[in-house]
Amino acid sequence: MALLSGRAALVTGGGRGIGEASARRLADNGAKVIVADMNLASAKSIVDDILKGGGEAKALEIDVAEFEKIPQKINEAKKLFGRIDILVNVAGITGSTPIEEITLESWDRMMNIDLKSMFFITQAVFAVMKEQGYGKLVHMSSLAALRGGRSSDASYAAAKAGILNLSKCFALHGAPYHITSNAVCPGNILTPMGKTLSWSKIDPKTYIPLGRYGTAEDIANAVLFYASDMSDYVTGDSMNVNGGLYM
Ligand SMILES: NC(=O)c1ccc[n+]([C@@H]2O[C@H](COP(=O)([O-])OP(=O)(O)OC[C@H]3O[C@@H](n4cnc5c(N)ncnc54)[C@H](O)[C@@H]3O)[C@@H](O)[C@H]2O)c1
Questions:
Q1: I need a labelling partner for 153 at 20 to 30 A (CA). Which of 66, 76, 98, 100 fits?
Q2: In angstroms, rounded to a whole number, what is the distance separating the alpha carbons of residues 123 and 195?
């Protein structure tokens, strides 16, 4: 039997990059996947591909920073497969504003999209998982959460550090309901977002111990572990997937 057979998963930011690779990885392992993104066209094209490959998937249009709509959107998501066993919070933006130039507006935008959304999406899904007595929460943090933002900015690093702590809060409060909550901290991953960052112009052999950039699939493998029952005794944890860059 497939690792995620019978499970329903919601992946935000599933339209491209790390979210896309995660959605595909979960579907390949038997999950029914909701590919949720603000870009509905790309979410639909991933869904079409998963269906062609014999998997099960549906697309959902969502802007994770439209907070008032979150309860209704999660309700919609639940109805698609009747439950939500796995939530993978991937939707997010990056920023590279110099520390002296961060404004109230740019700070709030980053917090809204990268941190506040993660809390309120998870809060809404948490209620569904509590009712089920089962859930796997996986959140996309960053290497920047651990060592400060270098190519990404201070507001991004702060938001991603917030995700690590909120993940622990959900882990503590979810434990009695068999809900685990864990985060992944990717290093330099060559996705459409990654290609906009300054590190993508540097030869990875010169600064990444494993000598290459990460791929979205490298991150999807960590997501699969936390989304599956292989990680049943792991909660409030995070995994560094960075080719050794944190050392
Ligand atoms: N690429 C890296 O090197 C790297 C490193 C560390 C962490 N991360 C994190 O991983 C996540 C994904 O990164 P990526 O490189 O795949 O990015 P990406 O920009 O390539 O893809 C992000 C996806 O999220 C969607 N999205 C953005 N804002 C949204 C919103 N408000 N509502 C719904 N969907 C939205 C986009 O439409 C897109 O499909 C982000 O949270 C990012 O911070 C990436």
A1: 66
A2: 32
Tokens of 16: 């491209």
**Ligand 1 geometric centre to CA of 176 (Å):** 31
Ligand 1 pocket, Cβ-based, cut-off 6 angstroms: 12-13, 15-19, 37-39, 42, 62-65, 90-94, 113, 140, 142, 186, 188-189, 191-194
Q: Which atom of ligand 1 is nearest to the CA of 94?
A: 43
Rg (CA), the chain: 17
Would you state the pLDDT for residue 85? 98
Share of the chain above pLDDT 70, in %: 100
- Is 233 an annotated catalytic residue? no
Q: Which atom of ligand 1 is nearest to the CA of 66?
A: 31
151 — pLDDT class (breaks 50, 70, 90):
confident
Interstrand relation of 56-61 and 86-89 (parallel, antiparallel or unpaired): unpaired
Q: Which of 156, 177, 207, 226 is catalytic?
A: 156
86-89 and 8-12 as β-strands: parallel, antiparallel, unpaired?
A: parallel
Question: Within 10 Å of residue 235's Cβ, how many Cβ atoms?
Answer: 21
> CA-to-CA distance for 6 and 1, rounded, in angstroms?
10
* Nearest CA owner, ligand 1 atom 43: 92
Which CATH superfamily hosts domain 8-239?
A: NAD(P)-binding Rossmann-like Domain (3.40.50.720)
Q: What is the pLDDT of residue 1?
A: 87
